[in-house]
Amino acid sequence: MSIRRTLVPLAALAALAACSETATNPVAPQQISAPDVASLSSSANDARHGHVMHTRPVQLEAYRNASSRSSGTGIFYHGGPVLQAATNVATVYWASSPIYVNGPAAGSTGTGTGDGSLVGTFLRGLGGSAYFNINTTYTNGAGVHIANVVNYTQFWANNTSVPAAGANVSDAQMIAMLQSAFDGGKLTYDPNTLYAVFTAGTVNLGGGFGTQYCAYHTHGTVTVGGVSKTVLYAAMPYNYAYPSACTSGYAAANGSYDKGADYEVNTFVHEIEETTTDMMANAWYDNRGYENGDKCAWTWGTTYTSAAGGVANVNIGGKDFLVQQNWKNSGTGGCALHL
Amino acid sequence: MNNLTFWIAAGGLLLATGTAVAQRSSHVKRASRCDTIATTSITFGRTGGNITPAGLRIAASGAVTSLADRAGVGSSARAVPVDELRRLAALGWRGRFVRLPTAPTRPTHNPDVARDFVELRSACARKHVEVPADQEPAAFRALFTQLETVAGKPY
After folding, report:
1. How far is A190 from chain B (nearest CA, A)?
2. ipTM of predicted complex
3. Would you call A62 an interface residue with chain B, using a CB distance cutoff of 8 Å?
4. I need a labelling partner for A336 at 20 to 30 A (CA). Which of A74, A276, A325, B106 fits?
């Protein structure tokens, strides 16, 4: 019996040790990382799915999502504010003449209805769309869902102190320009408004246009009525000036009508969505610091040929557009075009 | 349980244990033969932010390929000498690069600014690092710069 009592536990221990995978592994442990983006071939997917554009961006999407899908929706709330009740948008077209076809006349101000450009059409139709509805899967700190509301409230076609082609325009200069707008009554200040600053040609808003980014959103401080206020703004340089870095590369959805506006809308909506859900960069982002728009940038989902012969994936305000997908914060997460 | 049953059970258990140990030993030998340096491919370029992704991939053979262009077709551009590739692979796997974190864990100063990335992938392991262009650690920049020198600018 003594042999039996000794042998059985020893054998069991030996079996456990043999099955363990945590013992001496000859391969140095590495952090679990996402797939090699280059190894995720897209051509086969393209063939299977026809109009589903699986190109470089899909590889990137696969990479971005690989780690963040391990639990929940893949994006997390960090306590900061969101634009819950509505996303208000004001535009500043900072140029000596209209940047986009049928855009506001130089020097004019008005409400969103006075902007006849494709950018204006898109903005007026964005609220209530199935596309923007994706943002309703996000909540504020009290758990209240973001409303599917976008208001194009005002514009200013600012033709004063216009930056020259190629000139670097700093954030301080953009904030100073917005300050002048509030001081001069060109725009009304609102803490829940995203002020989108558009420029023409190669004006380098922020200093990294075309090499580091095609657009960005951030916030600054202005003084209104003698009180310091946070102002949300987006730098929106003219993306068509750098087509290889800042456009989809596909035929513009509205043909030759205004390619600049067509391509601009894609990066613009990226900034609108991120401002809505992460206005101060402390609300919704994933474990790599990606905001909702970042997680799906340059991915298009299912597309179709527009009436103008271009490539589109949504119809907003009665016009076809090609816009990136957005990350949905429901189910197991994922990039989507509508909800 | 009589003695015969006990000894049969104990013998079976020992046999199973021995088989498992042998299999594990075999696995260790297989993994030990994995040559991290010789099987490494390297991808590098830019990712993230609000700008199109771009990059180059150096296969373990040294062939350089652009990440698929918008038409979904990669293009073979040039080749890196295998010895040079292995030198860079060794720099990646054995230097400070391999200890760098994979990515920031929160939005960077400007979340829409692209990040540069380098990914090493071998038959044995994988390492991916991405960092904002203005915050690159020296070990990352050193490897990235040398990759640009031998394979060309990724964007």
Report:
1. 22
2. 0.79
3. no
4. B106
